[in-house]
Write a structure and sequence with these properties.
alpha+beta; methionine-tRNA ligase activity; ten-stranded antiparallel sheet; tRNA-bd_dom; Isoleucyl-tRNA Synthetase, Domain 1; Met-tRNA_ligase_1; 2 domains; tRNA binding; elongated
């Protein structure tokens, strides 16, 4: 159901189809819906790696459906079956665009939307609970584009020179400069806790005081913090330069940091004396958001996949650590995790 095939056989339109009533389609819907349920649970529990694994499962389900139906063969023997396969596969592409957006970024999903003849907006990139045929019969598709390009040998060499280091550096004790810490972390005090109407067993909708502003944060911690009283008044760490997202239809403007290790799960807590809005730093690292001459702070807006690259763990004394070497702190006072043990991952 790649756009070139659909364009050649169906005039670049979503073809008229037989819906999801066939045996193959019913089986696909059951498996996709079960995976979507697991995907939502993973993201709500901030299990980002598990969410990515399930997204790949969804991709494989779509590929298996397409290969089994083989519309490039059935188009001659059973045109209605080929048309149904193409329509379903195109709708699966739309689903995969939003499922992979937290990992690949908005530019990736916007490109897929463009090829499907859709406008990419915050509302249109909502991840559904179940699989539906959202591209209707006769919907015009966009022009096909390459999603990924080949990296040339010259580019590989340049990347190795920039990031790979050398054996001489490894043995001589010469090291690259300390990394910048690009996350805008601030102390936030939880001042209100409300259940999420669409996920009452997993999500809390928090109002967090950040000093100069209040933000709404959707947090998938209800399984571990079942009562509002367990959260109210806590001073936590908020990622403030994360791109706003919609979780089950409710906007979340940032993310509350938590730590997890096997069955353990707990919040990352700021010093009780720290005022809301205070900056959280990683050791003595320079910060790309700090302006020369005391000119304040500016930070790039991070996609979730970019924030995931920041290596945060729980170290000795349950202190949050960046790259196991730089303790998270507020004016020298440590940021610590609760309810977990050393080695837990912060996410």
């Amino acid at each position: 159901a790649r756009p070139p095939f659909t364009k050649a056989k169906f005039g670049g339109l979503v073809p008229e189809h037989q819906g999801l009533g066939g045996d193959a389609e019913r089986k696909l819907v059951r498996e996709v819906n079960e995976s979507l349920k697991q995907y939502h649970a993973a993201l709500e529990n901030v299990s980002l790696r598990e969410g990515l694994r399930i997204a790949m499962v969804l991709s494989r389900l779509g590929n298996a459906y397409l290969q089994d139906a083989a519309p490039w063969k059935s188009i001659k023997l059973d045109p209605p079956a080929a048309a149904t396969c193409c329509a379903v596969a195109l709708n699966l592409c739309r689903l995969l665009a939003v499922v992979f957006e937290p990992y690949m970024g908005a530019a990736f999903s916007a490109q897929l939307f463009r090829m499907l003849g859709l406008e990419h907006t915050d509302s249109s990139s909502y991840i559904p609970d179940t699989f539906e045929l959202m591209l209707t019969t006769g919907h015009p598709l966009g022009e096909p584009e390459l999603l990924f390009r080949t990296i040339t040998d010259e580019e590989v060499a340049a990347l190795r020179a920039r990031f790979g280091g050398t054996q001489e550096e490894a043995t001589s004790g010469t090291h690259a400069p300390e990394p910048e810490f690009a996350a805008d972390l601030r102390v936030g005090e939880i001042v209100d806790v409300q259940p999420h109407a669409e996920s009452i067993d997993r999500l809390w909708v928090l109002s967090v005081d950040l000093g100069s502003e209040r933000r709404q944060i959707v947090a998938g911690v209800r399984e571990h913090y079942a009562a509002p009283s367990e959260l109210l008044g806590k001073k936590v760490v908020i990622v403030c330069n994360l791109k706003a997202v919609s979780l089950r239809g409710v906007e979340s403007r940032g993310m509350m940091l938590c730590a997890a290790k096997k069955e353990e799960f707990g919040l990352l807590l700021a010093p009780q004396a720290a005022p809301p809005g205070a900056r959280v730093f990683a050791g003595e690292l320079r910060n790309p958001g700090e302006q020369p001459g005391g000119g304040g702070f500016t930070y790039p807006i991070l996609e979730l996949k970019e924030f995931q690259k920041i290596q945060l763990t729980v170290g000795a004394g349950l202190v949050g650590m960046f790259k196991k070497a730089h303790p998270l702190n507020v004016d020298g006072a440590p940021v610590v995790a609760e309810r977990v043990s050393e080695g837990a991952k912060i996410k």
